[in-house]
Write a structure and sequence with these properties.
Layout (H helix, E strand, L loop, with lengths): L3 H24 L7 H19 L1 H8 L3 H21 L9 E6 L3 E6 H27 L5
Antiparallel strand pairs: 1-2
Helix pairs in contact: 1-2, 2-3, 2-5, 3-5, 4-5
Membrane topology: Multi-pass membrane protein
Main location: membrane
GO cellular component, one term: plasma membrane
């Protein structure tokens, strides 16, 4: 497909969706949103991009193989589960670090955010793995 307008819109759409998915991730844990829905939204942006440009272009954008994405996601979830054990708490207990940052001010960063980020990366990798495989089987290259 050689439609310049559609290609420009697909690039812009992917960027907007990526920002929106990160906002959903950060809003997460105590409000609607989180890692799962953020990962689904990001994968949706990549799917739309892949429909326009093909699966090869998706793979060139994400840098790593989708299995590596899933592994990184599972690793982050494991780290979030194990960190509380090292301070004498039960696994998956929420721990918080309250710090002063020069430009932002006071920030509360905790293990739930690390857990949600792992889910975000893992879900995105899983959905992209399935979609890229389907696109390659159907020979969906433009």
């Amino acid at each position: 497909m050689n439609n310049i307008i559609l290609e420009k819109i697909a690039r812009l759409f992917l960027r907007v969706i990526a920002v929106m998915s990160v906002l959903l991730l950060l809003r997460g844990h105590n409000s609607p949103g989180g890692g799962f829905i953020g990962g689904i939204v990001l994968a949706t942006g990549f799917i739309y991009y892949g429909i326009i440009f093909g699966s090869d272009r998706i793979q060139s954008i994400i840098y790593f193989n989708t299995r590596i994405w899933m592994g990184i996601g599972l690793g982050l979830v494991l780290v979030a589960a194990v960190i509380p054990v090292f301070v004498g708490q039960a696994p998956l207990t929420g721990l918080w670090y309250i710090g002063e940052w020069p430009l932002v001010g006071t920030m509360h960063i905790g293990t739930p955010l690390l857990f949600d980020t792992g889910i975000f990366v893992g879900v995105t990798g899983l959905i992209l793995s399935v979609i890229i495989t389907i696109m390659e089987v159907l020979k969906w290259n433009t």
